[in-house]
# Entry
Amino acid sequence: MPTFQNVRGMRDLLSEDAQVLTLVVAKARGVAELFGFSEVITPVVESYELLSAKSGEEIRQRMFTFKDLGDRTVALRPEFTASIARLITTSLKNEPKPLRLFSVGSVYRYDEPQRGRYREFWQSNFELMGSSQPEADAETILLTDSLMKAVGLQDYVFKLGHVGILRGILTQEKIDERTQNAILQKMDKKEYDAALDLVNSEKCKTILRELMKMKSSDIFKTAEAVRGLMKSEGYEKSMEAADNLIEILKLATEGGCKIEVVDPAFARGLEYYTGMIFEVYVPELEIALGGGGRYDRLIEAFGGEPTPAVGVAQGIDRIALAGQSQGSVAAPQARKRVVVIPVSPTLKGEATKIARMLRDEGVSSEFEIMGRKMAKALEDADRRKLDFAVIVGEREAKLGAVVLRNLAKREQEVVKMNEIVGKLKK
# Structure
């Protein structure tokens, strides 16, 4: 028989790793609740047409795509926003705005596997729909900051930019949207020379080069410098975008989030962004723990009413990895684990009743289901590092008692039935 291995880029998460991932998911759910977001669950499989419409060429090439039995082209979701946009145009189209929607689950991209990057990975996703105000943009930054704090991460860094600055320049220079998307894709991958090769205007190239030099940790000075450059060069829409970025920076920093970097040449891979964009990093990983931005035209592109929106996705696997690297995230301390062992077949029913009673009281209890003799059952419990054995014997049963054995200390005592739980929880 063949020995089967994981499909490349897919992982089995065993006990401790599964617990850590579940812990981060719980933290994300806690943040969603604190910020007033309602959880929705969308399908893992969506139509390819939906997922590819505004995702960007890079992601389109990396989607897991296939034909279903109805000969429809479908794909595994590479992110959540397209699915949420579909909800807004259908089931939620008449809901009052703003809508605060939270999702969490697995997503799929055919990336080259490496540390912190997998082909199946987990994301928490927050979408805030219906507001064009900078307060909404700041909210997505602040909730991401809250999640980083909730997980206990240290030394994380926020980087902000604004797609409207770049698109304002490119649009005014009469560069078509398809070429704009290609330029931003190149800039997202730090292929700046290749991006500039797609620009015909020398003036435009000069301005873009100038923006590339302005990346700075003096965030307000940088944003003001960008605004001044856009004003002096007559790029009105880009100047408005710089004003918007300054307002968002003020709100986010006044809200308690430390933003370390403003990068006016910063771009992200998804085509649907129209405004502020951001990512968050830690020194231990070279890839972003999360990122997002404003997308004001996506809902309309999917047939809905014009709806301003902003969203963010955080990489659950990456946050867990960063937390483990920093020592801030670990599997929660396990409950005391107990095995209940009847000394003879005639006591199985009594032992089953005792195991049920312990579970009802919140004590993790296994029943000895292998038919082992007492010595072998205790040997197995030791090997699996269980904490206690509850031994159900004939004599003790007549007295309404059991033998409680501390497996680590190799000590045991006779305990009345009504005292077992107290002894185990002490």
The mean pLDDT is 93. The domain at 15-326 is CATH 3.30.930.10 (BirA Bifunctional Protein; domain 2). Residues 15-34 form the longest helix (20 residues).
